[in-house]
Amino acid sequence: MKILIINAGSSSLKYQFMESEGGQVFAKGLCERIGIDGRLTHKVPGREDVKQDIPMPTHGEAIQAVLDIMVDPAKGVIASTDEIAAVGHRVLHGGMAFTKSCIIDDACIEAIKKCIPLGPLHNPANLMGIEACQKIMPNTPQVAVFDTAFHMTMPPKAYIYAIPYEYYEKDDVRRYGFHGTSHRYVSARAIDMLGNPEHSRVICCHLGNGSSLSAVVDGKCVDTTMGLGPLAGFPMGTRSGDVDATILEYLMGRYGYDIKEMLNILNKKSGVLGISGVSSDFRDLDEAAAQGNERAALALEKFIYEVKKFIGAYATAMGGVDAIVFTAGIGENSKELRASICQGLEYMGVEMDEEKNNVRGQEVDVSAAGSKVKIFIIPTNEELMIAMDTAELCAK
Length: 396
Ligand code: AMP
Known about the structure:
single chain; Nucleotidyltransferase, domain 5; globular
């Protein structure tokens, strides 16, 4: 089934048009500066990228621009929008309402709206993408795929916060976790690569600009590092990861920040960027550290240390581990970081083959012969998961 996948942000919208069976990508691209002016970048494999300035006052014009270029005789890939069998939307926060993907109807939209307080930055943008598609393609089925859904199998001891229980009962305060579609895809691939054993314990390291780990037992998530929002866990490009809440009170008192300013610092100015003062991009940090920048080296060291600690924690939580998976921008591309993270984990049976690890972006087993724990690099494919869910739900 040919599926259009939409990932709508507040001023941008990513799209991919692909076959749900086998995952062939026909076209993909990005609308930027929605609400400002509007720019479209359209990519078709084997052709030159197309860049166009198109006015996009709202997400509606952005979706229309995507559909227009898809059917354009020279730049497009289809003769008519009727060839789009369904649309799959990435939605950030499904709260407790969504444990899996669902066909978008009025009840689904209401439930996504109810999750806005939990995902105040992303859910409104996701809804704008959905509503624009509904308006322009009223007869095409739409499916919502949630970043949180995969983690809804966590047991209470993993998702409950040790604050008064009433905030969980009345206000849905709990750990949700994110990158769920990626964790679902790579953990399923890892189980396949393990030979589909009856029981499996997998640690997925999604290391990109945003990063999270998940612990997956028999294909079901039992713990993850992100929390109510995506700020939690270990340091990321610009996000702090877990911090002592006392820091908030202390800095807000000292500098007169309000909570918005404080959260902006933790979300946008922290992580490896905050420590290094150099960049949020790990390539820049590698370069700076190689040139002797001590803070860049410290940022890398902190990142590696915290990822290692969570690997140890999750191995303990699961009573062992059969495979560790590396995915996303850093996990797929940086052999140095993968090696540094695995170094020192030999005591728990994690042994990497340095030669095999000398690859980028390939699905491959990089563990040493005889390593008790397999180490896999698995390029993530959230879009394929969204396309598969969309096709499956629409076929029903
Ligand atoms: P993602 O959010 O998954 O797209 O990952 C993006 C991040 O991956 C970038 O910000 C970089 O920090 C990181 N990255 C990409 N390529 C490399 C590389 N070759 N070495 C280290 N980090 C990389």
